[in-house]
């Protein structure tokens, strides 16, 4: 494990000891992931079934290193909801694979819906599914690389290969399962 990842894992375990709120722990993890990836912001879309339809809904939205949980926690009446056939997050949930979109204007899966609602301009996306066994429980989306035009293969390694086999990602899977209950 690389040093930033070790530091993040250690800080996350400390937060878990100090906080009983699983949402707060996942929020902190997203803040730190945002820092590691040098993303402008990260969001968590939870998978759910509503009226027999699979969808992804914002739970933690627009998380940045300096933001507060209260500002990023999305109440049920303000959720941004994507059916699985719309948007990059829907595509990630359907395929169960990480997606790196260097230029959203060139990606057929990109939907400007959230940008239109928030007056934000998305340029690049790195999104990865969070799995519980073979089932998607959530999608984490990092948006707009700050230190370059797009996310790199090294960012993909951090997001998928570098974290998934380690306790850091396994811990996130367990936390998200607990939040879903």
From TrEMBL:
Ranges where the GAF domain occurs: 21-181
Entry-linked InterPro entries: GAF, GAF-like_dom_sf
UniProt protein name: GAF domain-containing protein
Source organism per UniProt: Urocitellus parryii (Arctic ground squirrel)
